[in-house]
Structures are given as structure tokens and as C-alpha cells.
Write a structure and sequence with these properties.
The chain has a domain at about 140-365: Alpha-Beta Barrel (TIM Barrel). The protein starts with a helix and ends with a helix. By secondary structure, it is α/β, with parallel strands linked by helices. Helix 4 runs parallel beside helix 6 (about 210-225) and helix 9 (about 275-295) packs across helix 10. It is built from 11 helices and 12 strands. Strands 2, 5, 6, 7, 8, 9, 10 and 12 form an 8-stranded parallel sheet that branches.
Amino acid sequence: MLKLVWEASIVLVVFSLVACSEPPFEGVTPESVVTLTPTSEFNPPTATPSPILRLTPTSEFNPPTATPSPILTPEVHRSFIPLAVVPERSERPQGNPSTSTPRGAILALIASPSPAPTATPTAIRDLLPDGVLRETTVPILMYHHVGEPPPGADAIRRDLTVLPSEFEAQLAYLSEEGYQTIHLSDLIMHLQMGSPLPPKPIVITFDDGYHDAFTNAYPLLKEYGFVATFFIITQLADEGREDYLSWAEIKALHAAGMEIGSHTYTHPDLREQPYDYVVWQVLGSKEAIEARTKGPVRLFSYPSGKYDEQVVEVLKSTGYWGAVAVSQGAHQSSDRTFKLQRIRVRGSYNLRDFAYWLNYWLEDSE
């Protein structure tokens, strides 16, 4: 019964739909109805997931492999060697100081024993001035030649040349009077940072880098356990001039604890020169020495003692700590480290003259 009712309902719904619909378009038959089938041209693309791009960096853009930075440790500078303790002497060393040492004997000089204790290098990072004004009286002796003047030498050459026997007598006097030699850099560090000095400090310097400073002066310095500062004209070492220190001898002096400073490349008058020229002279010679000795060059000697404020500024900007002039005296101060006073030792001095002028400038500076 329910089945019949359900079928009757369906028939009524169909009849109603047919009765309410509009009449079909004229001429339209079931056979004329075209069924549109979408072509592939209009088919919507099948959605497929896009492939995941995996970017592989090339070697050009690969980030550098991180490596830990080395731990910085203070550099040990050969230039800064503690003061040698000079033993008391009742008599002068034996030997003939005027005998020249051949260049081939460099290694023998270095290897020969010295009466002074072996100095231990001090680790120094850099000069850090504390801004305190300090003044002190420290003589800086200025030498050039130590040897015999050549035949026919003019007055200038004779004045610049101290006989080896006189030089030996002067060292003996300094030792007997209790002087202890220090490097020029030790004096700078005392003035700028308050580093201690021995009771009677003295600095020995040699200008121009003459060969006889190595053959005649250096053996005597070793004999007394003294140190000195040698100012080098680097062009003359480059050219291998026979009368001047060779690079091998400069390196030997540095290795033996001597201090090496710059005296420019060609020894010109630096006053009123173009800025670039001054830089070339003072920085070029500094770098040339450092490349050979592997140690820092901190000190400078003005050629013929001549300079102006531009030269001083270039020295400060290129890493120098101080410079020596030729003005006589022994008074040094922290605000004049680029105008340090010296005492010229003339070739005409005998021992009495040497002692007189040393004490004269010491008293005058107090």
C-alpha cells in the first residue's frame, strides 16, 4: 500500500513540473541538441604540487668556515732587554781594541762569551703614555766613527772619529763610575709610563751606521756588558757600501741585544719637504729595518739634527716613540721625547775631556 502511494506521489510531481515549464523552442528536437564536450584547450590544468627547490650554494657564495681567533699574547721585543748588570772592575779589559774584526767573524762575535749576565727579554705590548709630566737627567752620548781617521781626513771627519783606545777608556770610566747603559726606548718608557731606571743610567748612540761601529765599538761594548742604540741610513745598507754596516751586521747587532733605530733612507735635510717625501724617508727606512730584524723600530735620529714640526708629526703618526737631536744637554722630559738632548763625544777628547764634559752637562741639566 505504501508503495502505491509513493509511486502516485512521484507521478504527480512529474506532471506538475511538465505543466509549469515553458514550451520548447521551435525546431529544437532532442537530436539537434549538441552536447559540448570541453576540449583539452579549455580543460583546467590538473593541479600538481610544485617541486620543492633545494638551493645548493656554490663555492663562490659558500659562507667561510668559522675558525677561532688566535689568542693575542704580548709580543716579545728584542729591543726591550733589561739592563745589563756590569760587574765591578779593578782594571780595564785586556786586548787590543783597535784591531778591526773582519766581516766574516760576525757569528764568532755573537757566540763569544760576555762577562755580563744573559739578559732576558721583557714582554712589552706597546707604549701607553699615562699623561704624567716627568723630567729626569739622563745623558745620551753621541758617537759616529770609532777607528783611525783615514790619511788626509778633513776636520769634520777627525771630529767625528773617536780612537778605539779612547773609546775603550771612556767605557772603563763609565763602568768604574757605576753607570749602567740602557736602551733609548727604556728612557722613553720611563718618561711616558714611569718604568724604573737604574741609579745611574746612560744611553750610548751611534749615528750613520758606519762599519767601524761594528768592528771596533761593538766588541768593546760586549766586553763591558754595555748596550747601545745604532741609527741606520738604510740606502747605504741596501747598496752594500763597504764603509757602512751591512744588513747581516745590522741583524747581528740586533740579535745580540743592541737597539736599532732609523736615520732615514738617504740622510737628507727633512725641513720644508713635501709631506709624502718625509713619509717615504722615515717610514720606508723603518719598515726596511723591521723586515730584516723582525723587531720594532721605535727611535729616530734627525739627519744633522735638523727637523721641523711636520717631521715630528710624521714620526708620531708612523709609530715612532721618540727622536734624538744634536742639542747639547742631559735634561729629558716626557713632553719632549721627540727632541731628546745628547752629548757629543768629539774625536779630540782625551779621557779628561770626556769626563769633564759629561759632568758639565749633567750639572747644567739639574
